[in-house]
Design brief:
Shape of chain A: flat
Oligomer: homohexamer
Helix content of chain A: 55-70%
Radius of gyration of chain A: 14 Å
Number of domains of chain A: 1
Number of strands of chain A: 0
Distance between the termini of chain A: 29 Å
Chain lengths: ~80, ~80, ~80, ~80, ~80, ~80
């Protein structure tokens, strides 16, 4: 499962889309969305500086919500909607 | 179902995507969209301050509608479209 | 079907995604998109004031079209594309 | 098929998502995207005035392309990808 | 297959979504995205003038990537993911 | 598999959407998103100049995340979610 070319940032925690519950699927969606940001902007100090910018900007908060919804759609399908 | 690592905000009310009707599915979509905002901006006072900003901005209202539509697509598929 | 916690705005007219024709499905998509706006900005006077803003702004008109397309995708799938 | 409550603008030309070819499916996607704009901004003179605005703005041209792609995804699925 | 109402711009090269490989599917996605722009802004000189605008704007480059991803999703499904 | 009309940039590394794990699928999604940017802006120096612009802009970082999520949805479906 490990591979010498794997980047320092793990993009899919646990390397699986399968979760026990919708709640955990939603948490995974948020984590996966954040990890793409992390790999695109690897500098932790910069990410920390940007946090209050988007957290106080309603348009960006909505855009984050949109991205999480899209990640979640994939995770939900992978889990056959937990039904 | 509960887990010590669950964050204070519950992301999927009832921990299920299944609803009795489309109307309840739509309400769930709106709640799930809001809960991502809540977990990204946990400060209630800030969220309250931002509310009139987006509620008076047509572009943001449209973007909220877009996000809800995407959440609803997943919920509707989970419920096999209530048919 | 009715429930004491149902909000004053009905989000899915007829509480069903099933329509007789694609044309009616498209009308439902537009209505559902508008009803999310209505529940987010419940003040009718404000919505009326915002109408000429987005109706004269090509970027917002395109964004509305995008949201309706997404709502319609769900409705079309629910109706098995009316085939 | 006709109905007294049908709005003046027909939203789905031919009231069907089925087309003979992908090319015709793409044309339908463009038409359907335009008809949502038309129903949101019913004044023809205003739409005519807005045309050069979006036709000269690369961000809006890209956004139009995005919306057409989404409409087309639904039409393509309805036609089982013409295969 | 030809039809007197077909516009001068062909929107789907080859009038098919089927390609031999993912690589060719991706090329088709890019072409289809460009052809919607072409039909919306038919003037070649204007399109040429806009090219450096979006090619130097990271937000627009990202938006182009988004649109191509959506076109590709449809093409990939049409080809059953080439598996 | 090779073809004289293939452009200099390969758009789908390995010419396949199939990966061994979700992690590798996510890496492929990021690469595919970047390769569309590369083919749209082929000048490496320009791309290098734009990198700090989007890497310091939270709205653009979110938009990149959105595009990657969409590419990943297709890759995940192609791999039947690795289940």
């Amino acid at each position: 499962m490990t591979d010498p070319s794997v980047p320092p940032v793990q993009l899919v925690p646990g390397n699986s889309l399968i979760t026990k519950t919708p709640e955990e699927g939603r948490q995974l969606a948020i984590k996966m969305a954040r990890l793409v940001i992390k790999v695109t902007q690897p500098d932790a100090a910069t990410r920390e500086r940007l946090r209050p910018v988007y957290a106080d900007d309603p348009a960006m908060l909505i855009a984050i919500g949109h991205t999480v919804a899209l990640e979640f759609a994939t995770i939900a399908a992978a889990n056959k909607y937990w039904t």
